[in-house]
Write a structure and sequence with these properties.
The chain is of the alpha+beta class and 255 residues long. The protein is built from ten helices and ten strands. The strands form three sheets. The protein has a six-stranded antiparallel sheet with strand order 4-5-6-9-8-7. Strands 1-2 form a two-stranded antiparallel ribbon. The chain has a two-stranded parallel sheet with strand order 3-10. Helix 1 packs across helix 3. The protein is elongated. The chain starts with a helix and ends in a 9-residue tail after the last helix.
């Protein structure tokens, strides 16, 4: 009789201390399937449950391993990726996957307070911590305020440093929305995770020092590699609201 899913999960959980103490590579799904004489997909389901609980981490093409310390991402008005990496003593590493100027969707146009006939920059980033890709960001900025942005980013991949140095713009997060979702095919490949692995989406509205919209971004974080922290003392200023306060269609409501 085949073991139940719960039994397989319990068996693997019992093996974790031994694997960790020996510092041996965690066996592959195929090896565990042979050892326990159960279906490989049942093993995968049990391992993915352990990943979801934060006990293991999955790296595409490298298998399962014990997670390293999670990177703390602070959701406050100072929204610089480079800054919080340095605070965590993690070398910041960002890769620009694509840059284009295009006409915005209605959502982006509303966030940037422009029309659908106004051009915007669309920058697609992949960011790393401890050499592991931990998030994908789609960033949108008004084109008419940031001419020549691509040339600057080729020399300095830090977006906010570029905005400050070359345009005199001081970005400040004024609102964010968080929701849980799962990875599709493209995200799984780019973040080195399993298909349908847990992600956290953070959408943020960013203004300049004069209160004018300068960026709208959508970031998908690996749920197993980051720790989101919200500064409650700034929550009102950041626009965090419960769904009851904000309503279903309020872009500042936290879902």
């Amino acid at each position: 009789m085949k073991n139940s899913s719960l039994r397989i999960y319990e068996q693997l959980k019992e093996k974790l201390p031994d694997w960790k103490s020996k510092e041996d590579p965690i066996p592959t799904e195929s090896e565990l399937s042979r050892q326990l004489e159960v279906d490989r997909f049942a093993i995968r389901r049990a391992l993915q449950r352990l990943v979801g609980e934060g006990r293991l981490q999955y790296i595409r093409h490298h298998g399962y391993r014990f997670p390293k310390e999670q990177l703390e991402v602070r959701l406050d008005s100072q929204t610089s990726y480079t800054a919080f990496c340095r605070q965590a003593h993690v070398p910041p590493r960002a890769e620009i996957l694509a840059v284009s100027h295009e006409y915005p969707t209605p959502v982006v146009a509303e966030a940037l307070e422009c029309t659908i006939d106004d051009l915007v920059w669309h920058i697609w980033f992949r960011r790393y911590s401890n050499d592991i890709p931990h998030c994908l960001t789609h960033s949108y900025l008004p084109y008419d305020r940031t001419h020549g942005l691509l040339g600057h980013l080729r020399k300095e991949p830090s977006l906010y440093r570029t905005l400050s140095t070359h345009y005199g713009i001081q970005p400040r997060r004024v609102s964010s929305r968080i929701r849980a979702l799962t990875a599709g095919n493209d995200e799984a490949k780019l973040l080195d995770i399993a298909l349908a692995a847990a992600l956290l989406e953070v959408c943020s509205w960013v203004h300049d020092q004069d209160g004018k919209p300068i960026e709208y971004c959508e970031t998908h974080y690996r749920a197993d590699s980051i720790l989101l922290t919200i500064d409650i003392s700034q929550a009102e200023n950041l626009g965090f609201q419960s769904q009851g306060e904000g309503g279903d269609n309020d872009p500042k409501a936290t879902h």
